[in-house]
Amino acid sequence: xxxxxxxxxxxxxxxxxxxxxxxxxxxxxxxxxxxxxxxxxxxxxxxxxxxxxxxxxxxxxxxxxxxxxxxxxxxxxxxxxxxxxxxxxxxxxxxxxxxxxxxxxxxxxxxxxxxxxxxxxxxxxxxxxxxxxxxxxxxxxxxx
Length: 144
Known about the structure:
The protein is α+β, with helices and mostly antiparallel strands. It has one domain (about 5-144). It is about 35% helix and about 10% strand. The protein is built from four helices and four strands. The protein has helices at about 20-25, 55-65, 110-115, 120-144; strands at about 70-75, 80-85, 90, 110. It starts with 19 loop residues before the first helix and ends with a helix. About 30% of the residues are buried.
């Protein structure tokens, strides 16, 4: 059973027939302390693997499914990123907030140019993207 926001309706498919739920399963093998936002890294754990992964994950999902990335405003002035693909709203990293309910309406759009102006964030995105590619390649090799 999935717990990320939008899991029930996250049925859109990429060119390979994979859904956000499939990518969630794959990303569980990719997220790590070194892909976590540096300010949260000391709190990252395998029990909370989505911590600090929101923007890089959302932009990676945008690469795959298209759509837009939006940000829920946070108390610290930052944003928690999520995806909207033609009305299919999902947030693969929402579990990091536990029982806190985020409001996914009327949120400002987020742009990779702004987020990736931080070199460390762009590098974390590249690392996550590479890991996902490697895991998908291994799965493809096993199946062929």
